[in-house]
């Protein structure tokens, strides 16, 4: 059976290579096959032996996980046009794809995974030196797990001058390595936390006080300000273990990891930016926060207080206003409930308003990402002024924190979440980030406490207390 499969792959590769040679240009070969159920964490861990450029994505709401190893194509853009330019380049690559994918399933084939930094321009500031401003990768090996099982896509950029036999040999070796089960994660104990350093907490609190003064005086209605906490461990952190623990502990969150130059941006975010499935569009307004109660009763009381709290409702309503306005531009049948409900996570609860619509023809997922990012849940209102304010006054460098991360396939499917509740991990060090929506009535001490709770999920999987 295995032999038949191998023979088919070889045959396809030979044909594609011949065509590439005749046209004297590279072709993107993409083959999707169903494989025996495969653990995504094992695939991610084994991926280390193939290529360190690894991507991980797990949906917050459905049985859907993507793991990408290596890159057949990498697209990296910067500046205001980065979303459209990425889209155009993906489109161009897909024109030269030779594809075998009998499953017609979202998230298989020439899927691109990655993200876009918070701002269109970035100067490789600490600790983000390894990260390009944006990066979308079509991985060489992609594992797609959903309710129906496991699917393995092999994407390979076949160039005319390469030797086919060498490609076949390496590809088969890598595929076998990736499908060999790794059990080291089951016994790993994780890192010991040696040092926690809050980055200029006093200055950060002062920045909140300054922002409230600005909000009262100026044209800004809301601005989100974040802070950083640095950790040092006794040894190198295992990203696979971190992902596994996040998935276990934060099951209503998107779990993600993106590698660049040995640094990993990892997190478990509850916040969807936008999902498109065929022409259906889903977004979410998530803003306004309180902690969880220690008893069911206390939890309910806290939730009810949040639903009725003016300051939090205002924080939330700015987000709804903006997302409604943006989505109405390129969709019809926009459905948004009148009032928010509660979105409960392990450590905190948020005000939540889901958004559903039908995307008009001619618009794509990245068009929506471009317009929505950053929503007032991460930037502020008005959008442009808030982003400028953040650049000038925030006590850290955002890099990819609070930015759109996700995936997009060759059909009309994809999803981007907002990369909060996240950390940048490199070897035995990590930077954790958390922010909060500042409105006129914000109190520095309360916002500080709010960010403390938001840091807990990442801290807990990195040896800290929950
Ligand atoms: C900015 C963050 O979270 C955002 C801010 C929230 C708030 O201030 O209430 C709630 C959810 C998120 O939209 C973060 O977690 O870093
Ligand atoms: Mg808040």
From TrEMBL:
Location of the Chorismate-utilising enzyme C-terminal domain: 202-454
Presence of the UniProt keyword Magnesium in the record: yes
Group of enzyme by EC: isomerase
Pfam families per UniProt: Chorismate_bind (PF00425)
Alphabetical UniProt keywords: Isomerase, Magnesium, Menaquinone biosynthesis, Metal-binding
Record: active site: 222, 271
UniProt binding sites for Mg(2+): 315, 450
Pathway: Quinol/quinone metabolism; menaquinone biosynthesis; Quinol/quinone metabolism; 1,4-dihydroxy-2-naphthoate biosynthesis; 1,4-dihydroxy-2-naphthoate from chorismate: step 1/7
Catalytic activity: chorismate = isochorismate
Swiss-Prot/TrEMBL cofactor(s): Mg(2+)
EC number of this enzyme: 5.4.4.2
Residues that span the membrane, as ranges: none
InterPro entries per record: ADC_synthase, Chorismate_C, IsoChor_synthase, MenF
Physiological role: Catalyzes the conversion of chorismate to isochorismate.
Record family assignment: Belongs to the isochorismate synthase family.
PANTHER family, per the entry: ISOCHORISMATE SYNTHASE ENTC (PTHR42839), ISOCHORISMATE SYNTHASE MENF (PTHR42839:SF1)
Record protein name field: Isochorismate synthase MenF
Source organism (scientific name): Salimicrobium album
Gene symbol of the encoding locus: menF
């Amino acid at each position: 059976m295995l032999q038949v499969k191998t023979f088919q792959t070889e045959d396809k590769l030979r044909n594609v290579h011949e065509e590439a040679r005749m046209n004297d240009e590279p072709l993107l070969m993409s083959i999707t096959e169903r494989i025996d159920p495969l653990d995504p964490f094992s695939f991610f861990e084994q991926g280390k032996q193939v290529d360190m450029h690894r991507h991980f994505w797990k949906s917050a709401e459905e049985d859907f996980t993507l793991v990408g190893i290596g890159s057949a194509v990498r697209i990296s853009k910067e500046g205001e046009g980065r979303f459209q330019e990425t889209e155009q380049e993906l489109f161009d690559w897909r024109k030269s794809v030779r594809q075998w994918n009998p499953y017609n399933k979202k998230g298989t084939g020439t899927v691109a995974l990655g993200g876009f930094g918070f701002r269109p321009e970035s100067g490789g500031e600490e600790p983000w030196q390894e990260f390009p401003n944006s990066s979308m990768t079509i991985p060489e090996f992609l594992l797609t797990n959903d309710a129906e099982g496991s699917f393995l896509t092999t994407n390979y950029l076949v160039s005319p001058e390469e030797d086919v036999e060498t490609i076949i040999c390496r590809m088969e070796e890598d595929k076998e390595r990736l499908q060999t089960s790794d059990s080291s994660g089951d016994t790993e104990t994780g890192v010991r936390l040696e040092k926690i350093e809050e980055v200029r907490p006093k200055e950060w609190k002062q920045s909140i006080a300054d922002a409230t003064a600005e909000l009262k005086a100026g044209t800004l209605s809301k601005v989100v300000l974040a802070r950083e906490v640095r950790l040092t461990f006794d040894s190198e952190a295992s990203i696979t273990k971190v992902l596994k623990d996040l998935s276990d502990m934060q099951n209503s969150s998107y779990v993600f990891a993106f590698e660049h130059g040995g640094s990993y941006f990892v997190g478990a975010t509850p916040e969807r930016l936008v999902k498109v499935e065929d022409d259906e569009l889903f977004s979410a307004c998530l803003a306004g926060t309180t902690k969880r109660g220690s008893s069911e009763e206390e939890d309910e009381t806290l939730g009810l207080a949040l639903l009725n709290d003016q300051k939090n409702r205002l924080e939330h309503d700015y987000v709804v206003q903006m997302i409604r306005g943006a989505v109405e531009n390129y969709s019809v049948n926009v459905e948004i409930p009148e009032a928010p409900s509660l979105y409960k996570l392990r450590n905190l609860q948020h005000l939540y308003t889901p958004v559903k619509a039908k995307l008009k023809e001619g618009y794509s997922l990245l068009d929506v990402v471009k317009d929505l990012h950053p929503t007032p849940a991460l930037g502020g209102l008005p959008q442009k002024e808030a982003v400028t304010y953040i650049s000038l006054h925030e006590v850290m460098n955002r890099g990819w924190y609070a930015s759109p991360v996700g995936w997009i396939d060759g059909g009309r499917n994809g999803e981007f979440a907002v990369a909060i509740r996240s950390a940048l991990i490199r070897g035995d060090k990590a930077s954790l980030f958390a922010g909060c929506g500042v409105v006129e009535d914000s109190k520095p001490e309360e916002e500080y406490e709010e960010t403390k709770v938001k840091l807990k999920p990442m801290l807990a999987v990195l040896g800290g207390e929950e």
